[in-house]
Design a protein that fits this description.
The protein is mainly α and 171 residues long. The protein has helices at residues 2-18, 29-35, 39-76, 82-113, 116-125, 134-137, 151-160. It has one domain.
Length: 171
């Protein structure tokens, strides 16, 4: 069960990087044609992605797997040391945050390679490609502005949403 969860987590990460096209969307002939990407842009985006993969994705993914194993080991113990558990969870969350930040920074660098027209086309035809991923943003990319919600709007959203009860398995 844990291996399935880990595989799904990795798939979600890669899907958030790729949207609805392949992980290396800038090499997909249809996307290249739609966006009118130049060979220079394709090469630059490839370099950005390879740097991200080498410097962040692979090493942080390995550290995250290791830290997850450590947290699971602590959870399986008959008596878990709370301080050790808290440290391990904090470290795991910091690693995940670092990976998310690196992923978003990579996407921002890719965006800077594109022209305004290419970004408009990308937003229209492939809205999930450079977004944070459907898991967090429901597939919206480059909306242009961030809307801040007031406390009242946040409460209305909470109150109007589906309540999760004890039977749902989530709190």
């Amino acid at each position: 069960m844990r291996r399935i969860f880990l595989c799904l987590l990795i798939c979600v990460l890669f899907l958030s990087l790729s949207g609805t096209v392949s992980a290396q969307w800038w090499k997909d002939p249809k996307v290249v044609a739609d966006l009118k990407l130049t060979d220079k842009q394709v090469a630059e985006i490839s370099r950005i992605y390879e740097d991200f993969e080498r410097e962040s994705l692979k090493p942080l993914s390995m550290k995250i797997r290791s830290k997850r194993r450590q947290v699971n080991t602590l959870l399986r113990q008959e008596k878990t040391d709370q301080k050790a558990f808290d440290r391990a969870v904090d470290e795991l969350l910091k690693l995940r945050d670092r990976l998310l930040r690196a992923s978003l920074e990579m996407k921002l660098k890719v965006k800077k390679v594109l022209t305004e027209e290419q970004i408009r086309t990308l937003r229209k035809r492939y809205p999930g490609l450079l977004s944070i991923g459907s898991r967090w943003s429901k597939g919206r990319a480059f909306t242009g502005s961030v809307e801040k919600k007031t406390g009242k709007e946040k409460e209305e959203k909470k109150g109007g949403g589906e309540k999760k009860g004890a039977g749902s398995g989530r709190q």
